[in-house]
Amino acid sequence: MKLTNLKYSLIIAIILTACGRPSNTEPSIELATESDVHDFIDQFMVDAKKHGLNLDKSLIKSVKLEDVIDGNPRRLGQCSGSAVGQIIQFKKGFSKAETKLTVYHELGHCMLGLGHTNDDNDIMYTYSTSKPLNNWEAAVNDLFNNANPSYTKWTTKQ
Question: Tens digit of pLDDT for each residue in 7-18?
Fold first, then answer.
């Protein structure tokens, strides 16, 4: 009887210990760094050029990764400033994919003159979601094809 109780106790202890361990099969999520943000901005410029837009990157005065943006813990990004320079802030602690989406979204506001949309497969969707866009390439095409043509402080059409 004592051996059986000991056996069950050991099994329960092993199960409880194993439950607290992270699974080796779960993919690790690599968080975005400030260097990644700059790479995403450069990629945005390349994509803009592919769509016939020349953007003046020198007007971006500052790019920051912040814990909280403008006192709002739910805000993932913000582009603020004037024609003489923009300050772009992004929230820390997000994956590279989420941060890339936020970079394109914020630059869509301040460099392309775009507002929010109600389409959750659009880069300019009002609310951030952790779900990936159905088709990144199509979303990027839509972003640049919808650029506000009268918003010229950053752009010149080729």
Answer: 555 455 444 444
Q: Domain for residue 1, yes or no?
A: no
Rounded distance between C-alpha atoms, residue 80 and residue 69, angstroms: 11
Range of the domain at 48: 34-149
Q: In whole angstroms, give the CA distance from residue 22 to residue 3.
A: 31
Q: Is the pTM of this model over 0.90?
A: no
Tokens 């507002």 identify what position? Answer: 115
Q: Tell me, yes or no, whether 29 lies in a domain.
A: no
Residue 26 lies in a domain: no
> Based on the structure, what is the number of domains in the chain?
1
Could you report the per-residue pLDDT of 56-106, keeping only the tens digit for each? 888 888 888 878 777 877 778 887 776 556 777 888 888 888 889 888 988
Q: Which amino acid is at 20?
A: G
Tell me if 13 sits within 8 A of 5, measured CB to CB: no
